[in-house]
Write a structure and sequence with these properties.
BirA Bifunctional Protein, domain 2, 240 residues, alpha/beta
């Protein structure tokens, strides 16, 4: 029987509260797993979760990132109505904003495979297949995490894993305002540019359609069933 992942679409939400929410869900899954292993958990464990969200303008720096890759002062960012957050995911600096689909899978890899590199390659494969749906041959670049079309990055990735339970995830540029990437060295890579589906196709893309394609390919790549499960309120009710 395929494992079930619950899908919650939060709409447009600030970065920090969603980060906090991810952490609480991750910890809930970890705690249930610990109790289950020692035979003290009663009932049925929570399913894994996939969160879709768009963030208002925000720059996030990974735990191993270099602050010098932020090319603007905090005052300048305020003038652009953008935040700056140091986070605990892997990777360097990136930008999130409206028109970008951010996906946060919170998954217990003990249910699938305990291999972080394989997990990242699977996430990349999902996005590669989505790009193919729109007629683009996306690819990986050796030594770099994420998905590229030619030499331009269309999807950034950065995760954190604790007790084999993941958080953070991927950011796919769909209708993203790419000018905001000019304020940083994206992912700390100086000789590469970023792109979006809108830029490549010359017109805006229906975000709902892209999300549906992500879900379809996620189900096929990870061999799971994804169940739409509601809003942030319902997510908090189910997990907190």
């Amino acid at each position: 029987m395929k494992k079930t992942i619950e899908l919650y679409d939060l709409g447009l939400e600030p970065y920090q509260p969603v980060w906090d929410l991810q952490h609480k869900i991750q910890q809930r899954i970890i705690d249930e797993k610990k109790l289950d292993r020692i035979g003290e958990f009663k009932g049925e464990r929570k399913n894994d979760v996939l969160i879709f969200v768009e963030h208002p303008h925000v720059y996030t720096l990974g735990k191993s990132g270099d602050e010098e890759n932020m090319l603007r002062s905090l005052l300048e960012l305020q003038e652009h109505q953008a935040e700056y957050v140091k986070t605990n995911r892997g990777g360097d600096i990136t930008y999130h904003g409206p028109g970008q689909i951010v996906g946060y899978p919170i998954m217990d890899l003990d249910r699938y495979f305990t291999d972080i590199h394989k997990y990242l390659r699977f996430l990349e494969e999902v996005i590669i297949k989505v790009c193919a749906d729109y007629g683009f041959e996306a690819q990986r670049i050796d030594g770099l995490t994420g998905v590229w079309i030619g030499e331009q990055k269309i999807c950034a990735m950065g995760i954190r894993c604790s007790r084999w339970v993941t958080m953070h995830g991927f950011a796919l540029n769909v209708n993203t305002n790419l000018q905001y990437f000019n304020n940083i060295v994206p992912c700390g890579i100086e000789d590469k540019e970023v792109t979006s589906l809108e830029k490549l196709l010359g017109s805006k893309i229906d975000l709902k359609e892209v999300k549906e394609r992500i879900v379809t390919h996620f189900e096929n790549v990870f061999e799971v069933s994804i169940k739409p499960s509601g809003t942030q309120t319902e997510l908090e009710k189910n997990f907190l």
